[in-house]
Amino acid sequence: MQWRIRPVLPVTKLMVAVAIVVLAAAFGGNDPIRWAIAGVAATGVLVWATRDLLAPVRLAADPDGVTVVAGFARRRQLPWSAIERVRVDRRTHRGLRSETLELDAGDAIYLFSANDLGALPEDVAAVLADLRIAPGSSEQRLSTHHSPDQ
Asked: ∠141-143-146 over CA atoms, to 5°?
C-alpha cells in the first residue's frame, strides 16, 4: 500500500510561487526590498513544491514494515518491530479540527496529515493495523512467541 500527496498540491504551490513573482512585478516597482522578500517567498514555495514532486509517496507499507519520507526526499524503511505505536492524533484549536497519523519509531516520530496521505489518517491507521498483524509479517511472528497481554 502507498499513500501519496494529492496531485493538486504541488501544482497549487507552483501557482503560488508564480503569483508571488507576478505580484512583485505589479507592485514591487524598483524597491529592492520588496523584490528580495518576494524572491525568498517564491523560492521557499518552489522548494516546497519540488519536494512534493520528488517524493510524492509519503508512506508505503507492506507486511514487512513501512517506508517513510525522512528529511527533504530521503526514504527510510522501518520494520514493524521498530514501530512502537501507530495512532491518530485529533486536536481542536480555535474551532479548527486537525487529524494527523503518528508513527512512533522510538528514535523518531513521523507525522502525516490528510494532505500528506491523500486519505484520512484514521483510514490509513486501520490499514496499517491490518498489515501489521497480517500473516507472514514479522510482528505476527513476534506476537505468536510473546504476548504482552498474557
From this structure: 115
Q: How far apart are the first and last CA of the chain?
A: 32
**Would 150 be classed as within a structural domain?**
no
- The total of structural domains in the chain comes to 2
Task: Look up the pTM and report it.
Answer: 0.76
CA 4/CA 7 separation, integer angstroms: 8
Q: Is 21 helix (H, G, I), strand (E, B) or coil?
A: helix
Q: Which tens digits make up the pLDDT trace of 71-125?
A: 888 999 999 999 999 999 999 989 999 999 999 998 999 999 999 999 999 999 9
Task: Based on the fold, state whether residues 88 and 26 are members of the same structural domain.
Answer: no
| Residue length of the chain | 150
Whether residue 124 contacts residue 110, with contact meaning beta carbons closer than 8 Å, is answered with no
Question: Can you give the pLDDT at residue 147?
Answer: 34
Range of the domain at 138: 57-145
**Angle ∠(76,80,86) on CA atoms, nearest 5:** 90
Residue 99 and residue 46 share a domain: no
The answer to whether the CB of 132 falls within 8 A of the CB of 83 is: yes
Element housing 2 (H / E): strand 2-4
The reported pLDDT for the residue numbered 134 is: 64
